[in-house]
């Protein structure tokens, strides 16, 4: 009788463990189709298209995620976000976009004095992002995007000193 009770207890415990394991696996599979995108937007006060000590992060800047079909270029997904006080934004995207090219672009600056975006194709200020679990990235949920920057019309007078501190000589005249 005792052996039947032990066998029954073992069977119940095994069934509970297997069902919880199956639920865990199903939850993980669902998570692979949900991505948290994080990024930031700054004011490029030196017009060099990278963050310097003189850059300012912008609250209220708008960015847009666009995914396009690799085959015909049609837009398959569009989503916008607005930056917080620290200049950072977050957005959640669902679905696997392996067969698409996805990128974040600047839409609108909250600062009219810092609202230029390069028009040159080779200087396009956009951040490409992978939105698929089938890409070898260990973190399946969070994608951190490079900072995007609006530019001022005229660089600050302090920019050459900031470049010297970095050990670089820009290819522009101030």
Characterization of the model:
The protein is of the alpha+beta class. Helix content is 22%, strand content 34%. It has two helices and ten strands; from the N terminus they run αββββββββββα. It has helices at 2-31, 159-166; strands spanning 34-44, 56-57, 62-69, 75-82, 88-94, 100-108, 114-116, 126-129, 142-144, 148-152. The strands form two sheets. Strands 1, 2, 5, 7, 9 and 10 form a six-stranded mixed β-sheet that branches. Strand 3 (62-69) and strand 4 form a beta hairpin. The radius of gyration is 24 Å and the shape is elongated. The N and C termini lie far apart (92 Å). Residues 7-13 and 20-29 have low confidence and may be disordered.
Shape: elongated
Elements, N to C (H/E):
HEEEEEEEEEEH
* Helical coverage, percent range: 10-25%
- The fraction of residues in strands falls at 25-35%
Secondary structure tally: strands: 10
> What is the typical, i.e. mean, pLDDT?
81
The secondary-structure class comes to alpha+beta
Largest sheet: 6 strands, mixed
Note the gap between the termini.
92 Å
Quick overview of this protein structure:
The protein has 174 residues and is an alpha+beta fold. The chain is 22% helix and 34% strand.
